[in-house]
Structures are given as structure tokens and as C-alpha cells.
Amino acid sequence: MHISTGLDIGGAEIMLERLLTSHPERKDELVIISLQDEGPIGIRLRNQGYQVIALNMAGKLAFPVALWQLTKLLKQIKPDLVQTWMYHADLLGGIAARLAGVRHLIWGIHCSNLPIGRPLTKLVMKAGAAMSGWLPDAIVAVAEVARQNHIGYGYNANKFIVIPNGFAPLSSIPAAQKEATRRELGLKDGQLIIGAVGRNHPDKGQDVLIEALALLPAELNWRCLLVGRDNEPGNVALTKLLERHNLSDKVQLLGLRDDIPVLLNCFDLFCLPSRSEAFPMALGEAMSVGLPCVATDVGDCRELVGDTGLIIPPLSPSLLAKALTTMLCFSADERNQLGQKARERVLGSFSLNVVSQQYDQLYSRIAKQKESADV
């Protein structure tokens, strides 16, 4: 059983989806529970034949009600192993699993630092840290930086294993589909397209990117596409920020889209301007389609990118602008060469197949440890 805080579009949720669908022959052995609603990923999994249960956790009594519902479900289903994804699922799913007598429990840490402006999440994390020594059998961190930081937060150091996010080649996009998307977006020939994918949130650094874009040389012919939840014209704060920097006609707000592979193929380069990350799915997917990347040195981004792109310190619009200028001034061949190196690196060193095998090995090790302890 996999228990996730939610199944909306996000790095952890996408990784869960990829992990499950990499072995479709196992779907009858799995149950996926979302503490919140089904979300788009839950709907996609259900449409593919996976059993998805949404608890629709909401309101002042959300925690005790969800704990009761979850414990009841676990007693009915009797899973052999429970793997939880993200802080709230770790805490609630972990307590419910132990109350229901589940023998094997694995937690998942999918961020390096606490999200900005989430006091309740901080309390949940602190409770998880206090219980980490005796509740889970293992804790998966998707990045070495995430492991180190959470040990600093009080998590039990002996429980951790680092398993990065994994990536598979995205489906090839027909040239006609790419051209149709470019026409839909009004992208002009000869215009260099900077793409950034991620929900609008201080952690993701869209404000830093906008400040950097305002510093780009006037003679460069570029356009930037901001993709992800709340990156849309209805976001008043974001549109005002663009107006203040005179970028309203240079930055296009696309909001949440379900055609990310197509959009990635429309970009000339990818930018990840985040203040905080662990092992970002968006960056790895951009690399997997052969995009040269500029990213901030947060989480394990440096480990992911290696020498295939440009890594700069976070919170530095001037250095980000310099890196983007460098990439935009490269010839098309130079960008293509970097992009090909990026693709080879991410699919060679961080393939979904290898990551899936690491999870299988972890499951086997936990089961064997428990069997030995029972003898």
C-alpha cells in the first residue's frame, strides 16, 4: 500500500506514479491511498486499473478522522508493506499502520527544507522526527541533502536510505504537434524560449527568475514560459511583478498544463530558479528530453546536472541573468550538445529502472530483517 498526502501534480506524486506504472503487471497487488482528494494523478492511476482510495481529509477534525479511517482501511486490507509519501502521510500513515498491525513500514522524505509559510507542516515534521526512531523501519530520502538536513531536524540517522527520483525517456513528440503548440502559444521563429516548470511558490523562485529576466541584454530575442499551478494571468501578485519589471510582453503565464512533454520540446533551454529543492523531477525531465539547463545550487541539483549545464547560487538574480545570457548566446549546436549530454547523464545515472530496483531491494531487505527478528 502506498499512502500519499495527496495526488495532485507535484514531484513526489509524479515519482509515485512513475514508480507504479513502471511495473503495470503489479497493479493488482497495490492499493494507493490519498489523504486528500484523488487529484489528477489519482484519476490517471484509477483509469489505468489501479485501486485508488481518497479520504478527502479536510476541516478542523481532519487529522483524527483521517487516522480513524486509515486505521480501519488498513485493518480491512491487511497490506504486507506500507510506504508513505511526504510528511502528513508519514505521520498519519505510520501511526495507522502500527495501530493496524502492519509489519513493514517505510517513510518518504521528498524535500530538503521545510516549505516556506507552512507552520502546520512544521509541527507534523517535528512529530515525525520524534517518532522516527521507532515508527518506520526505513526512511527514504530522495536526496543526500534531504537526508543530512532531516538528521539535523531530529530524524533518526540510522533509518535513512537515499534513493533519488528516477527518469525514463519521454515519448517522442511529432514535429507537427510541436509546431501546432508553438502556433497556439504565439511563439515566433528565431525566438529563443526559456522554460520554467513548477507551481508558483516562494520555494520555486519565480520572483527571482523574473528579476533575472529583467537584467538580460536588450538585444537578445527571447521569451519565457512559466508553467505550473498558479502561474497564470489570474495571479495578481505575479502579473504585478511582471508589470513592474516591464516583462508582461516577454513572459507568458501558462498555468497548469497536461502536455508538459510537448512544452519541453518547445523550449530552447530550461531554468530552475528555486530557493529549495530535493531532487527535482522538473529538472530531470527537462534533461531527459535533451534540454540544456540553468539551475540553482539547492538540494541535489548539482549532482543531477553534473557538467551538462550551469549551476549558480540561489537568490542571486544577477548571477542567474549572467548564466541565462551565456546559454542564450551559445550557438544552437552548442546548446544541442549540452542537451544531449544532459539526456545521457540523467537516463544513464538516474534511470527509472535502476530506481525501481532500489525500491524492490529495500522492500526485500526490510522483510528479511523482520523475519530474522522473529526467529
From TrEMBL:
Record protein name field: Glycosyltransferase family 4 protein
Domain Glycosyl transferase family: 178-345
Signal peptide start and end residues: none
Superkingdom of the organism of origin: Bacteria
InterPro entries named among the record's database cross-references: Glyco_trans_1, Glyco_trans_4-like_N
Organism, as annotated: Rheinheimera marina
Annotated ranges, domain Glycosyltransferase subfamily 4-like N-terminal: 9-167
